[in-house]
Amino acid sequence: MPNNVVVLGTQWGDEGKGKIADLLTSTADIVVRSQGGNNAGHTLVVGDKKVVVRLVPSGILHSSSLCLIGSGVVVSPDALFGEIEELKASGITDAEQRIKISAGSSLLLPVHVAIDKASELKRGKNAIGTTGRGIGPCYEDKVARRGLRIGDLYDMEVFKEKLAALLEYRNFALKNYYGAPEVSYDEILSQVMAVRDRLLAMVADVSAILTEARANNKKVLFEGAQGTFLDIDYGTYPFVTSSNTVAGGCCTGSGAGPRHIEYVLGICKAYTTRVGGGPFPTELFDDIGEGIRARGAEFGAVTGRPRRVGWYDAVAMRRAVAINSLSGLALMKIDVLDGMDELKICTKYQLADGTISDLPPLAAYEYAKVTPIYETMPGWSESTVGITKFEDLPVNAQNYIRRLEELATIPVAIISTGPERDQTIMLNDPMA
Ligand code: GDP
Ligand code: IMO
Ligand code: MG
């Protein structure tokens, strides 16, 4: 019976992590975010209520679960308290009490948003297509060891000094390199002071809570953000986010040791999507892609941007299985493929030099040149919406899923047939 389960994206994000994290949280005591920030947008649907969480762990809808934000996360106070207000409006009034934040989490400030936007403008046609939330610049400051952390708020004298140094550096770049307006020290300081006490009241030792939870046999769910191919090391660099989105990031970003992770659930769509720039070998530019985008409502939960859409990519999946040591898959949005004549699955790549490869290249410029090699399977005309038993799926849908499983070399544990909690086929509950 696994107590420590990771849920993460195996593609380019938006796989449906929120739905599955929310579903599994009904049996979890604690839900942890270990990386990313409010670039994430995880959609939870309960009845006719839809909640999108960005920085807050998806466990927040379950009144008994504790929600932790680890030191690998970049925390924007504006985003955090904005989200807490939204949650209040939808009836969750105790969010602030149930969220605990590590003192080591990075503080994401308006200066990071300014740099993110200016640097995207400067990149012009080579823009990454970031969410514009300041994520990359905040991680830059962290790695450069000039960043501010939540724990720095304890000593305001030191905080002020560090903030002044950070802004001196960043404003120099804004003015002289980007030709953008500078940000004001006084404004940022007063914004921070306005929320300081609230933030400090949420600080806790996340790693110690996890250690104690383990001693007491509690169930912990690690909720990944973004997806494997947006990982800073293993994604399609530089068209990636700035954190480790792969399974290892759950440990470094929360302070849980790697030997304690017992199950890693990879979330993938029955097709592929991507928002922002970067290589996407199986991308569709035709009516078939339009149809999937429309039926799957493939528009970003954070920015509203239309998502790029393509066929399922088993080559990328094999890499995701290896890097994350996936135990099983949750195959999402199978219902979106209802009514299609045929479905293509990319099983191999042809590289630029003609070589046939079972694994994707690591360099983005090589990735951009691969040609997918497809096999074709017949589709199904029946509706799969809301089906809860595998044997009730049309035979062609069953065959498609079994083929994806075979290519991934790991079992499909969950199949999702709609956005709601109960629109799910649970073949093997990762928490049970
Ligand atoms: P996340 O970032 O991985 O949590 O995914 P998002 O919430 O950004 O995007 C997934 C979208 O698909 C959300 O709008 C979900 O409500 C929706 N969704 C999840 N599972 C299913 C499913 O099985 N079928 C359909 N039609 N929609 C789903
Ligand atoms: P969830 O958790 C999809 C993408 C952006 C851009 C790149 C870098 O909802 O799956 P950033 O703002 O992080 O510097 O942007 O990463 N991106 C996501 N795409 N889902 C996400 O999160 C994403 N978070 C970032 O579109 O291409
Ligand atoms: Mg999302």
Outline, from the CA principal axes?
globular
Rounded mean pLDDT is 96
Radius of gyration: 21 Å
**Number of DSSP strands?**
19
Task: Report the β-strand fraction as a percent range.
Answer: 15-25%
Structural class: alpha/beta
Contiguous uncertain segments of 5+ residues: none
**Helix proportion:** 25-40%
Name the strands of the widest sheet in spatial order: 7-5-2-9-1-10-14-18-19
Sheet having the most strands: 9 strands, mixed
Query: Termini separation (Å)?
Result: 5 Å
What small molecules accompany the polymer chains? guanosine-5'-diphosphate, 6-O-phosphoryl inosine monophosphate, magnesium ion
Helix tally? 13
Give keywords.
432 residues; alpha/beta; 19 strands; binds 6-O-phosphoryl inosine monophosphate; binds guanosine-5'-diphosphate; binds magnesium ion
Summarize the structure.
This protein has 13 helices and 19 strands.
SSE layout:
Blueprint (H helix, E strand, L loop, with lengths): L3 E6 L7 H8 L5 E4 L8 E5 L2 E5 L12 E4 L4 E2 L1 H13 L5 H4 E3 L4 E2 L2 H14 L11 H9 L12 H22 L7 H17 L4 H10 L4 E4 L23 H6 L10 E7 L2 E3 L12 H9 L12 E3 L1 E2 H11 L3 E5 L9 E9 L5 E2 L6 H4 L3 E8 L16 H14 L3 E5 L7 E3 L6
Parallel strand pairs: 1-9, 1-10, 2-5, 2-9, 5-7, 6-8, 10-14, 13-15, 14-18
Antiparallel strand pairs: 3-4, 11-12, 15-16, 15-17, 18-19
Helix pairs in contact: 4-5, 4-6
The structure holds guanosine-5'-diphosphate, 6-O-phosphoryl inosine monophosphate (IMO) and magnesium ion.
The site of guanosine-5'-diphosphate has 23 residues, from α1 and β3.
